[in-house]
Amino acid sequence: MSNQGAETAVRWGPPYLLYLGSATDDLSIKTARGLAHWRPGHCLGQHRRPDCAVTLDLPDLGFAQAKAMGADTMVIGAANAGGVMGPEIVADAVAALDAGLNVVSGLHHKLRDNADIVAAAHRNGRALFDARAPGPNIPVGNGKPRAGRRLLTVGTDCSVGKMYTTLALERSLRARGHAADFRATGQTGILIAGAGIPVDSVVADFISGAAEAISPARADGGWDLIEGQGSLFHPSYAGVSLGLLHGSQPDAIVLCHEPTRQHMRGLPHYPIPELVACMEANLAAARLTNPAVRPVGIALNTSKMPAHEAQATCGRVGALFGLPCQDPVTMGVEAIVDNLVACFPG
To answer: Which Gene3D superfamilies does the entry link to (predicted)?
Structure first.
């Protein structure tokens, strides 16, 4: 893979050692978990500090041990509030480089901005890659209609399954013989897809242009499946969500939600929005650049619910909207794709 932001000419790639550090909850390791789920053949093991409270059920490996077993790159797969690269992460990144591993990261703090990490990359001839570096020449969005079909996943909150849903839709459409491409907008998706733009690191005026850039006009009848970010109802991240809605010009949207969540992630004083209101707000915003946008399904993250309750909840939510409702991980997305294909034939 390319070496954007690195200090050497070395290329990086799998097999990966997934770094969990001192993570205390599953949401904080969603980058590592996403790679382990969607690219299991690329993931050799995990590295955890003694106080780490989560696991991917992969072999626990030291840096030198992982290198000896064939690992090429350590992926910093754990994140904290603000994406800060603290002293422990810096020390472990240097140790991994000294063991001969390349290092990639999706944190807001950049590997390339830390002198100790850059020095370790230099002395070992290793590569650094910052997945949250958006790159140059992102245009300002223009809102002009463009050829092709696009679907955007939207959410009631952060970390409710937008990336998983988008990847599952891509896999299903391709299995049916349709042209379909996952368009990554976050660090985990970029590491899975090998390309994309991290929209939460794009200057606000250019977010819609970034969405236009990753989903350009296409004439093959296929779908660009654009990974959503944040939520229109999250006071911290609504701006990113709105820019994606405008720049994606989606023909279709899928609303993603976690039924057990009581408040917006990180904001206990903000409740989760009501589902119908959330859907209507996203459709209203999307109509600025595509008046014909329509909802095609609901994706629920039911990982914290027993199976019978998950099925009942999907049935209830689906009936509320008159749309197929599924958990992409445990139930698949075939009913949603059936509806998508029916709504957009040919």
So the answer is: NAD(P)-binding Rossmann-like Domain, P-loop containing nucleotide triphosphate hydrolases
